[in-house]
Amino acid sequence: MVSANPVILEMRSITKEFPGVKALSEVSITVRASEIHSICGENGAGKSTLMKVLSGVYPFGSYEGDIVFQNEVCQFKDIRASENAGIVIIHQELALIPELSITENIFLGNEPTKFGIINWTEARMRTLELMARVGLSEDPDTPVKEIGVGKQQLVEIAKALNKSVKLLILDEPTAALNESDSQHLLDLIRGLKSKGISCIMISHKLNEIEQVSDSITIIRDGKSIETLDVKADGVDEDRIIKGMVGRTLESRFPDHTPTIGEVFFEVNDWTVAHPQIADRLVCKNSSFNVRRGEIVGFAGLMGAGRTELARSLFGRSYGNFVSGQIIKDGKEITLRNVPQAIKHGLGYVTEDRKTLGLNLLDDIKTTTVSANLAAISKHTVVDLDKEYSVAENYRKQLRTKTPSVDEGVSKLSGGNQQKVVLAKWMFTDPDLLILDEPTRGIDVGAKYEIYGIIQELANQGKGVIVISSELPELLGISDRIYTIFEGAITGVLNKNEASQEALMKRMTAAKTSA
Amino acid sequence: MNAIKQLFGGNTRQFGMIFALLALVVFFQVKTDGLILTPDNMINLVNGYSYILILAIGMVLVIIAGHIDLSVGSVAAFVGIVVALTMRDWGLPWYMGILVGLILGALIGAWQGFFVAYVGIPAFIVTLAGMLLFRGANQLFGKSLTIPVPTDFQFIGAGYLPEIGPDTGYNNLTLLIGFVGVAALIWGEVRGRRKAQALGSDVKPMWVSVVKLVVLCAVILYVTYLFATGRPGTSFPVPGIILGVLVLVYGFISSRTTIGRHVYAVGGNRHAAALSGVKSKRTDFLVIMNMAILAGLAGMIFVARSNASGPSDGVGWELDAIAAVFIGGAAVTGGVGTVMGSMIGGLVMAVLNNGLQLLGVGSDWTQIIKGLVLLAAVVFDVYNKNQGKPSFIGFMTKKLGGKDNTGLEVAMPLKDTVKADS
């Protein structure tokens, strides 16, 4: 029962090659009017490339195949051309200018002018109109840096509506949003659909896709695999995953029997203030402990203070320390800076691999040893042979896919980059490894391997803290899960008593829980 | 192309520059009827540019760390005048003068490094202020006059190695340096191959090593011959020896020591470096301080060469040094660059200057040509990285607009291709 709406967009046999790699091979998708069409696929499957072809980022001529939009074959030579046709793409990284106001952003590059002079009255009035349509109530003169990410996303959509959009492309629209902002955004997209605006959505959040999509195209290895009609085919998450990975995943987590020892790491009444705003506490009297061989999960919504807690523990690399105590192996320790934290056996793998975790100019071997250079150098002179053999060892052990350890880390896929980062911290031989969103931006197969590495570390008697936004992941690998809400720890659940509902309750309603 | 790449370790940029340097030398040699490759001219070249190359050693580290130093010319001039004054007025011996100069350089560097590293002021601003400040200080201390320096001090800027040993008709010490260089080169290559074999990593084909060694040794021996056969009493000049030692030392520091690694790490990704336990502020401080010490040294060598310190010494040096570094393959965004590359970049500029001078080209055209060379070198680099491989057609059809500096960092179009093969 495919909906009877007319076809608005057809991409036929799109093939796009980069030097040495075929990113897209004969990909076809069909989007109907007033439809939310999701594109699913693992990282690197070619979703973003396809959208770049559609929106003119890769101009006509750089790919093969046809784009038919509203019954016309289109040959977009740049983004502006696709926008003029009514196709607007909103990227994951928002294209707003933080210093400019909402009005200025909405009309940027599209200012209502008379003789080259901007008519701000008209711009402001139209902004108010657009803001009402997307359900945003702010002063249109507010600089966008002062409104939250959720609202910024709405400004982007308002900007698209201003360009009389007919087909809206959203690339991971809710990746940075919390639950309620996400819900608002999804409702808005549904509302736009009823007004006749079609939408293509790319998302890793399969539950959202299942919730809002009318149809789903699955892309795997640069090929379109299948198109599912959500209602008619009774699609659920497992069905989507099956299409994405090409097989039914028996288990998303490796089997693991933990051997848990005594408590060796304790944090008491940890309180930390925001780096700029002294009276805003990002961690409030948090206390928790980790036992040897244990994988401890930290669950919390985006902005709850999970990363802030981890980084403030890791040598006060975030925020201003107010009070609190760290006890390791029965002794109180003070970690004033990152080198001290490393010396006391802590490791921290950041959630933001590209901007905080890696030097993308470096090669694998330099990165692997970068947190523990002292171990392979004598009188500060680095032993290049040791460097090579250390890196080579970890490459084999973690099965990092690379031609050699001389390869630049920027050339690796997300999963392999994460393995290099893990190797870097494993080489410091930490007692406690804190992993912040360890599988973010990593595809399903590589996730399984990362879980295996985490469990292996725990088997060696190390404590591992896993911070994650994905509750199924936490439930799958943690032995114990703490919940955080607004900077405070609101509860702790053992593996057998934890469930998504129980966690979510503690992650959202601090006072009624724990 | 592949063979050439193997020959030069896959670094097309450095290969390009070495090639450009050789082409320039050959071009001028032909055009000037052999005036460029004469002992006298080579000595001039070394004496006239060694201080710029010394500055470039410090500058490349500053630029790798993601900063810039505009004050080096003024710092050099200030150190020069203070050293000249202390030797004249206090009667300090030449070696004490040098010590005073180095200490003063370190103090100036600590001053500027403090503001850059610990107060967090961009180095562009701090050193722009330093450029004005130390220029003024030079003129204040020297009363805008020229201060002569004693003859024994002039040795570091215009001195030659003594004639020792049997009379061979050559300068024996120059020959010795050349032979040691050749031996070190061969030994290094042999050792590198053995190690690669022992570790089981890729060993370059034998012919690559042989060709590389033959070419490099021939160049070294020829240059040695030139310097050893100059006018009686001349040799490979002292400033060149100082430069050579510094290149070896700093080349080693930057590539093989922990502090060198930290400089690259901080410049490549400051946050990631800090979260890996690198003391990034200390690294910034040391890099800026080191620059000022080398600026002081360069200033003293220049003063020694010109027999006196004057109020307009070192004007525009910062730009020559920065140009050398960028021609030598460093990236504006930091994290990329080598000491050796900067030396080659500096030599390209030096040979260009020298050759054009010998041809009687005026300073108007010399500057225009130097400007274009700088631009061309960086354009070559950007498009090379953007395209993945050099292709003139690709270069012409590629839209260069839009993404401004990103090409220097990571090849943008490649990002998607890389993801695809995970």
Protein model, in words:
The complex is a heterodimer of chains A (514) and B (422). Helix content of chain A is 33%, strand content 27%. Chain A has 514 residues and is an alpha/beta fold. Chain A has 3 domains: 7-245, Rossmann fold (3-Layer(aba) Sandwich), CATH 3.40.50; 262-345 and 430-514, Rossmann fold; 355-429, no CATH class. Chain A has a 6-stranded mixed sheet with strand order 6-9-10-3-11-12, sandwiched between helices. In chain A, helix 15 runs parallel beside helix 16. The longest helix of chain A has 16 residues, at 179-194. Mean pLDDT of chain A is 87; it is low at 510-514. Chain B has 422 residues and is an all-alpha fold. Chain B folds into 2 domains: 43-162 and 244-420, ABC transporter involved in vitamin B12 uptake, BtuC; 163-236, no CATH class. Chain B is built from 19 helices and 2 strands. Chain B has helices spanning 2-7, 12-31, 39-64, 72-89, 94-119, 123-142, 155-158, 172-199, 206-228, 238-256, 258-268, 270-275, 280-305, 317-327, 339-358, 363-387, 392-397, 406-409, 412-420; strands at 147-148, 308-309. In chain B, strands 1-2 form a two-stranded antiparallel ribbon. Chain B is globular. The two termini of chain B are 28 Å apart. In chain B, 43% of the residues are buried.
In short, what is this structure?
Chain A is of the alpha/beta class. Chain A is built from 18 helices and 24 strands.
Task: Give the tags.
heterodimer, A: 514 residues, alpha/beta, Rossmann fold, 3 domains, six-stranded mixed β-sheet, 18 helices, 33% helix, disordered C terminus, B: 422 residues, mainly alpha, ABC transporter involved in vitamin B12 uptake, BtuC, 73% helix
